Amino acid sequence: MNPYTILNQTQCQRVSDGVILPLLSGCESATRQLVLVWPQLGDFDSLEYAWWLQREAKKLQGEGIVIRAVGIGNRDSGKRFCNYTGFPGDWLFVSPNAQLHQQLNLYPGLSLKLPGLSISLNTYLNLLLMCAGIGSPGTLAEVFRGYWGDSQAPQLLDDEEVVRGIPLPPIKGSFFRLAGGKGFQRPFELATLRLRNMTEVLSHWNTYVPNGAYLTQRGGTFLFDSQGKLLYEYRDCGLLGFAQNMSRPLSFLLD
Fold first, then answer.
1. Residue 39 and residue 219 in contact, taking contact as beta carbons nearer than 8 Å
2. Distance of alpha carbon 51 from alpha carbon 161, whole angstroms
3. Three-class SS of residue 220?
4. Predicted TM-score of the model (pTM)
5. Structural contact between residues 125 and 110, judged by C-beta atoms closer than 8 angstroms
6. Which CATH number fits domain 3-253: 3.10.129.10, 3.40.30.10, 3.40.190.10, 3.30.1050.10?
7. What is the tens place of the pLDDT at every residue in 77-131?
């Protein structure tokens, strides 16, 4: 079945008001519809993707692109996610399970089952293995990119921007100039933002992850025109792999 048909028939809870609505409600007049099917809202990929969308929000709206996202969680997860990332609650929907992901044939993640372990423990074990790159291609390289820097990626923090909420003293954006200059992603710059996300999620784990059964589930990106024609799709194949071009995750929209 066409992804647009599946998404158009799916009803989920909107975070802003708790109303159950079709996922694509309010998108009818958009020139393009960007639909993001995220894993758990406490997943680092969901948080990082939302950061990039916030960074480019004015450009995307100027292009007439309407954004809808759905992540695994509940309304409390969604409200915490929006408060932290600034992602609009009107754009975000939540689903208690991975049924939509399964309908879209998105990668469920590593699913090894060791005898004697509960479903929950098996899921956590699979997540740890994926963090090590097993069943999660590209994950280790992406982790290292966060530390090494990336000359092909834009600068992530302005000089006057301050990173707080990490188990370190507040770090000013100008600090990263010492690690390599400016105008591109400097060493440790992305790793610091990921550390902030990790601290946020671990500090509110039960809110972000109300059901640990879907920790390994991956997501996908779908772009449609006003008639529902699929213009672009990307299906995640591992942790920290939410975009085809991780140096510039929204390049498929803005280039």
1. yes
2. 14
3. strand
4. 0.95
5. no
6. 3.40.30.10
7. 999 999 999 999 999 999 999 999 999 999 999 998 888 777 788 899 999 999 9
